[in-house]
Amino acid sequence: MDTVIKKKKWTLKRILWMAAAIAIIAFAVPALHSAAGSNRLNVHRSRIVINEVIKGSFREYIPVTGIVQPVTTIYLDAAEGGRVEEKYADDGAMVKKDAPILRLSNTDLELNLVNQETSVFNLLTQMQISQNAARQNTIAKLNQMADVDNTFKEAERVYLLNKELYREKVISGQEFRQSQIAYDYQVKKKALTEQILRQDSLAAREEMEQTRQSYQRTQNALEVMRKKVGDLIVRAPVDGQLTALDAEIGQNKNKGERLGQIDVLRGFKIRANIDEHYISRIFTGLKAEFNFNDTMYGLVIKKVYAQVASGQFQVDMQFTGAIPGGIRRGQTLQVRLTLSDAAPAVMIPRGGYYEQTGGNWIFKIDGDRQRAYKAPIETGRQNPEYYEIISGLKPGDKVITSTYNAYEKKEELILQDD
Predict the structure, then answer these.
(1) Inter-residue contact 277 to 337 (CB < 8 Å)
(2) Looking at residue 51, which CATH number applies to its domain?
(3) Which among 46, 104, 137, 333 is least buried, having the fewest CB atoms inside 10 angstroms?
């Protein structure tokens, strides 16, 4: 009778196959996990910043640096060049209108003034001589006219008498014709003398008028020269504070050179530099505000300077209400310049994520708050605090707003507690 031999369940061959299968699985699982994990990254919550998407009042504004300046500044330029001889006021001094500030010397101007005064004196002397000569000539002509008139009257009397006597046949025709010729001569002579007298009088008046005008022009030139010499003393054009005075005794100043300025301290304005990127959006009437000693103060743009220098242009802003006490010329203020009115909008806080995403996507926290995944978004306007969300997020969503430097190429983040 044959003996039944029981078949062994774990043969050597089977054990080897099982070991090979386990080895293959052991190698494949980490590989599969690694392939899946290439788009994932474990991130500790303490190393990221999570913010909530909100809906609120959004207002577009930009921060600018403003410098306090007097509302009016009058510049002092040298009306005439010269050497600084005296200083009557120092930089920072309060001055009154017409108060002397500097005295310059210019020997050429002073010599020209003396020459001009001499010219005026000589012209005045010549005018007086001409007037005396004209009067003497007039007197001579009048005397001559008187003689001519007397001779005319005598010739007229003889002529009329002889005319009557000739009609009565008392005198001869020859005697009558002689008296008639003498009379006609005196008539012509009188007319000619009167014409000469009128012409001399007219010429004398024209000469006197020309001399008077010449004298007046010379006198005006003298006044101008006196003013130029007077301008060597630089005076304050208005009441105010003398600043930026650039003049020392012995220093030579050219005509038109800037000597200093006077700040009219009746108020202040804020001058700010703005990036040229915003030049098309900046205009007079835009409002701004700044915080000073925990109080907000309003400003409005009154002037825009179109000139761009070093990538910036300037604006002048004036206060719309009270001026804060204690501000000083040259003080720096941080101003918020409003570019749009407040309007409802979906917003997220600013953060480092924008540098890597450009506002095109963001890591959004899943509902279980255990992971975050990339979500496409569209951003609109921005201010120093928020970005406006056009699409892709809704109020209440949680997003990561810190920098994405370490995981910008990942698709999913696994959030882990510390």
Answers:
(1) no
(2) 2.40.420.20
(3) 46
* pLDDT tens, residue by residue, 264-273: 878 889 999 9
Q: CA–CA separation, 113 vs 121, rounded Å? A: 12
Place of tokens 């370490």: 406
CA 81/CA 117 separation, integer angstroms? 21
pLDDT digits (tens, 9 = 90+) for 161-210: 888 888 888 888 888 899 889 889 989 988 888 888 888 888 778 877 88
Question: 180 and 193, same structural domain?
Answer: yes
Q: How many CB atoms lie within 10 A of CB 226?
A: 13
End position of a domain, from candidates 338, 372, 400: 338
List of residues 6+ apart from 409 with CB closer than 8 A: none
How does DSSP classify residue 409? T
DSSP state at residue 277: G
Rounded Cα gap, residues 240 and 69, in angstroms: 13
* pLDDT tens, residue by residue, 212-228: 888 788 888 888 888 88
Q: Single out the residue in 320, 338, 356 at which a domain terminates.
A: 338
357 part of a folded domain: yes
Strand pairing report for 40-44 and 412-416: parallel
Residue with tokens 């004398």: 204
More confident residue, 11 or 34: 11
Decide which of 22 and 134 is more confident. Answer: 134
Share of the chain above pLDDT 70, in %: 91
Domain that holds residue 80: 62-96+251-338
- Note whether residue 376 is domain-resident: yes
DSSP codes joined into one string, 166-224: HHTTSS-HHHHHHHHHHHHHHHHHHHHHHHHHHHHHHHHHHHHHHHHHHHHHHHHHHHH
Residues 368 and 410 in one domain: yes
